[in-house]
Specification:
By secondary structure, this protein is an alpha/beta fold. It has three domains: 114 residues, Nucleotidyltransferase, domain 5 (2-Layer Sandwich), CATH 3.30.420; 68 residues; 142 residues, no CATH class. Helix content is 56%, strand content 13%. It has 13 helices and seven strands. The protein has a five-stranded mixed β-sheet with strand order 3-2-1-4-5. The chain has a two-stranded antiparallel ribbon with strand order 6-7. The radius of gyration is 25 Å and the shape is globular. It comes from Segatella copri.
Length: 335
């Protein structure tokens, strides 16, 4: 297995590797720059050995073209989180260049090949959903900024009517675009049988809406990459972790590492379930009023409870039943 460290950028990426075909004996790695487009990547792949493994850092959309080409050409590629690479860098370098970054990624892949998680390009429907979800998030953020600015303008002693009318028109346009984007999401979901089936299962849970269901489908790749509630809770940042050392035991705590958007959507679902789900409402009241637990602590527990329900429903292929009563495990075991 020959490791190629790749530092991605928008227009090009730097590659660090040891040239095993060279007649010159050297302990220094080779370096090349590849154009980040289909033509440049295709030319780069022609010189790769059959056992090549690419190791790149997560950089958002800059690595999508490379990932798609790797899947089409049967080339293994693993993406490493920036936090992992930052912790791996034992001594801080005085300089930071693309050459040093790709060499660091290559060194990480050579030292820890067992920690590499190979990635494949998602199917077309999921990739379309991911872009629509990102586009809607951007539109919602713009509308929120506009509403905040509109409220600030109300504090002026004399307000411009032209500015007010302009803000109202932009707000109306954003509302229309958000609604159209949601319609396109539903169109993509309804056009794919497997995605539509899992979407209906997730949506059957009280408190879960369109946006959270799409988020779960995209991030889990239709529940094929992330298959358990614990895995998704760790990804979103809602999973509790032990914090103890020697005689000190602070119990479980929630890590700050996680996907902020996924965590926010889960908390929104937990708040909705607290209001509309009778069982969860009773659980919330018991934990806050009787056990005196903090509100955010209980909402986090409800979010994890919802995740367990969702992943169980998808695994069994069943819809959520609000009137379901769990049987006593002792009776089930005895029978």
């Amino acid at each position: 297995m020959q490791i190629y460290g790749i530092d991605l950028a928008k227009e090009k990426f730097d590659v660090s590797f040891f040239d095993l075909t060279s007649k010159k004996v050297s302990n220094q790695p080779s370096h090349k720059v590849v154009t980040n487009n289909l033509k440049g990547i295709g030319k780069f792949f022609k010189g790769l050995p059959s056992d090549a493994v690419l190791v790149a850092e997560h950089t958002g959309v800059y690595g999508d073209t490379l990932l798609k080409c790797c899947m089409d050409s049967n080339v293994k590629i693993a993406f490493v989180g920036g936090y992992v690479i930052h912790r791996y860098r034992t001594t801080p370098d005085r300089a930071k260049t693309d050459v040093l970054d790709c060499a660091l990624l290559r060194d990480f892949g050579e030292r820890y090949p067992d920690k590499l998680k190979y990635k494949t390009f998602p199917e077309e429907a999921l990739y379309e959903l991911r872009q629509l979800a990102r586009h809607r998030e951007m539109l919602v953020e713009q509308r929120k900024q506009l509403i905040t600015a509109d409220k600030s303008e109300d504090c002026r002693p004399i307000r411009s009517l032209a500015v007010k009318r302009s803000m109202d028109r932009i707000k109306e346009m954003l509302d229309t675009e958000i609604a159209e984007t949601e319609k396109e999401m539903l169109k993509v979901i309804n056009g794919h049988e497997s995605i539509h089936h899992n979407y209906e299962l997730v949506k059957s849970v009280d408190g879960v809406g369109l946006i959270t269901a799409v988020e779960l489908l995209v991030k889990t790749e239709n529940f094929t990459k992330i298959t358990t509630a614990r895995q998704y809770a760790a990804y979103a940042g809602t999973a509790p972790y032990e914090k103890s050392s020697g005689k000190m035991d602070k119990g479980a705590h929630i890590s700050k590492i996680g996907n902020r958007r996924s965590k926010t959507l889960l908390y929104i679902c937990a708040e909705s379930a607290r209001l509309h789900n009778k069982e969860i409402k009773l659980y919330y009241e018991r934990r806050t009023l009787i056990d005196k637990k903090p509100r955010h602590y209980v909402l986090n527990a409800i979010a994890n409870k919802l995740l367990r329900i969702i992943f169980t429903l998808v695994e069994k292929g069943e819809y959520y039943d609000a009137n379901f009563i769990r049987q006593d495990p002792r009776v089930v075991k005895h029978n």
